[in-house]
Amino acid sequence: MSTPPRLSLPDGARRVDIAVTRGSRAAIEISPTDPVGTAVLVPGFTGSKEDFIALLEPLAQRGWRVIAFDQLGQWESTGPDDPGDYALELLGADARDVVEWTGEAAGVHLVGHSLGGLVARSAVLDAGATSLASLTLLCSGPGALPPHLHGTIPALVAALPDVPLTDIWVAKEAMDLASGWEPPSAEVHDFVRTRFCAASPSGLREMGRILLDARDRTAELAAAGVTTHVVYGEFDDAWPLEEQDVMASALGTTAHVIAGAAHSPAVDDPHATAALLDALWRS
Q: What residue segments make up the domains of the chain, in order of their start?
């Protein structure tokens, strides 16, 4: 679970609603006066656009216009109850729509964090977003998480939608705190709880299933012709690092490691993450 260090938006950032084929998606946008390009950021499982708050200003200072959005069923992008609405290819189409909303589809750098990486990949392979300037898979993998790293996801999938999210949160919070989770402030702690409990139960269940069942499509992505970067934190504990390395090699690149970061580099070291992304996008 990504935990933003704060909730206040940096100067120049604004909350926007983005029209997509299936309604609208809540987003945060920041842009310098004369941007050198545009990036769209896709959050991961149980996350939201706020997971990228600390990354916005460092990227904008380097000249980038940045849009981070809530996926369907996340936080302020209210989602329906129909499980079919959370199919991976539909989430990918949403990401494509956000890219097109920028008005610069051919020049957008699309970044997907964790589950968001699978969604961003689907935007390319299923929704036709093949004119991207680049795709970055941030702490993401080639397909489903390995069985030994499923953690509590199978239990969450089995409990939803019958068990209230408020009850699930109590158990989740206790486990997270016991594992060393330390919210940076009472405000952020309250936000993370509220965000989790406000999510679509069907959305959480189906996104969890994606993490358990998604197939490896690395060969398809390699053939798509989109410049792809693989980035992960030194201590990332989701997909095995060696698995991400193999994926990068199959995509014709080398994985880039953010020293000292774990599964959420945008939170753990936003300045190093911004510097690396800036270098990759300008290369």
A: 13-282
The DSSP call for residue 149 is G
Q: Give the contacts of 155 (CB within 8 A, at least 6 positions apart).
A: none
Query: What is the residue-averaged pLDDT of the chain?
Result: 97
Per 3-state DSSP, the chain is made up of helix, strand and coil in percentages (nearest 5) of 45, 15, 35
Q: Which residues pair with 17 in a beta bridge?
A: 26
Let me know the angle formed at the C-alpha of 21 by 216 and 23, rounded to the nearest 5 degrees.
Answer: 110
Alpha helices in 3-83 (DSSP H): 53-61
Q: For tokens 């302020």, name the residue.
A: 76
CA 8 to chain centre: 20
* Mean pLDDT score, 58-67: 98
Q: pTM (2 decimals)?
A: 0.97
186 class by beta-carbon count within 10 Å (0-12 exposed, 13-18 middle, 19+ buried): exposed
The reported pLDDT for the residue numbered 105 is: 77
Residue 258 pairs with which residues in a beta bridge?
233
The class that CATH gives domain 13-282 is alpha beta
Q: Are strands 23-30 and 37-42 parallel, antiparallel or unpaired?
A: unpaired
> What tokens does 241 get?
């690092």
- Residue 281 identity (one-letter amino acid): W
Angle 263-81-200 (CA atoms, 0-180°, nearest 5)?
Answer: 30
Q: What is the pLDDT of residue 1?
A: 72
SS3 sequence, 27-90?
Answer: EEEECCCCCCEEEEEECCCCCCHHHHHHHHHHHHHCCEEEEEECCCCCCCCCCCCCHHHHCHHH
Tokens of 254: 């080398």
Percent of the chain with pLDDT over 70: 100
